[in-house]
């Protein structure tokens, strides 16, 4: 496989509204991000995925874009954006913009035109029909909104303030391509493509994901925007299977660098109530899914590795233990992920093991997905009680990931001098960046070590390109796998449980490369009689 710079990248996702507020208006901003670049450099990452900072009414926190080429004043100005790109570059950090191409805001000039009249030149930029179909919005309710001015319905797979763009119209593609090229000219390093698997939809056939026009559209985009450039592109594709992922990320097909697959991220969702009633964690199932993805590509695709993003609950609360073993279990999940083949993504706060939040009242939550689903499931259909729904919110809601970044133990977690747009997690007094930087054993330094191993150690090539082999597939508490590259072999072994585990592995350890417990080497290097403490994770160099 031809090597690419982004194979060896480690990405950090910034959710700007919650990262750092330099202006005191309660919203994070670009100047705030610039002021934290040294921190990110210290962590060791070399790419920032920046969630949307474009002009937006913020119905879905910037995933509703009113102008793709303007910065929302909450976040700053285009000047600030240029400064961020330049300052990041000085630290060898690239910026990956978030492209929301399936839909725009209803406040976008195109949509304002489109709804004017049926013969407006922008009418066909969006999807208008005389009658609604049965199609449901992902945020709850019908996917069709009646517009009385022209007496038709427009399609919105998300909120009604997020009308879907009509990719059947070649003009839409052309405008989008120009916009992407404009951002490339600003010096960004790449793009994350929001719900990109929806753009090939055939709405009248009820096809939304993976429509027949999807790959031709991406190939066209590649030709117009990505070809012969050193950009990295990652598509968000909720429905991807390994076979579909190859269609996107096989270099020979010239579409995207890689995709986010969500099979592992949705593994505990309820068949009917999805994330609002998660089922017990099943390690064997998780190993199966991740192993399938680890062994699926042979140069014909590339994995994006992640536990977290702005749409998912915090991993340490989800499958770890965010109380007694918070730091240790966070390090365990970090080790498991960063030991795998692919490009790892870290979501802000993950590197200090920030946890889910439990607000008493629904009022304290902001996310439109929570509100619309509450309306649908609790109020209208009554398929879940208020209590059940709140449990779902505590376990899975997106706001778990969106509470402000916890910088220190001063008021508002040092995030803002003003009133934060979303309440901070009250545990900031204990869990914060300042405390993590002060503690040589913190989760932060564990991430730093994992990144350094991948970026600049004798095991870099192995970690990036080495083969992967799962051990003990049926073991309900142990996640263990081998990585191999040329003559080198590493063993990653983790006890994903709250009880001690004894096991015997038929390998000889040369060295302990990383251990999330402080122990003398001799204590753990006998793999034939291995004893692992709760949530212990070790990387061994094998003979
Ligand atoms: C993606 C984003 C999510 C957003 C949705 C609609 O899934 O990650 O935050 O709400 O698309 O744009």
User: Which geometry do the CA atoms define?
Assistant: globular
Give helix % range.
Answer: 25-40%
Number of helices: 16
Oligomer: single chain
Distance between the termini: 27 Å
**Class per helix and strand makeup:** alpha/beta
Biggest sheet overview: 8 strands, parallel
Structure characterization notes:
The protein has 543 residues and is α/β, with parallel strands linked by helices. Helices cover 28% and strands 17% of the residues. It is built from 16 helices and 20 strands. It has helices at 30-35, 37-43, 78-90, 109-114, 170-185, 214-226, 242-249, 283-294, 315-318, 326-338, 368-380, 386-396, 399-402, 433-438, 443-456, 460-465, and strands at residues 11-14, 47-50, 54-55, 67-71, 94-99, 128-129, 144-147, 152-155, 190-193, 232-236, 258-260, 304-305, 343-347, 467-471, 478-485, 488-495, 501-503, 509-515, 530-532, 537-542. It has an eight-stranded parallel β-sheet with strand order 11-10-9-5-2-1-13-12, covered by helices on one side. A five-stranded antiparallel β-sheet has the order 14-15-16-20-18. Helix 10 runs parallel beside helix 15 (443-456). The longest helix has 16 residues, at 170-185. The chain is globular and about 75 Å long. The two termini are 27 Å apart. The mean pLDDT is 97. It binds alpha-D-glucopyranose. Alpha-D-glucopyranose binds at residues 60, 63, 100, 158, 194-195, 236, 310-311.
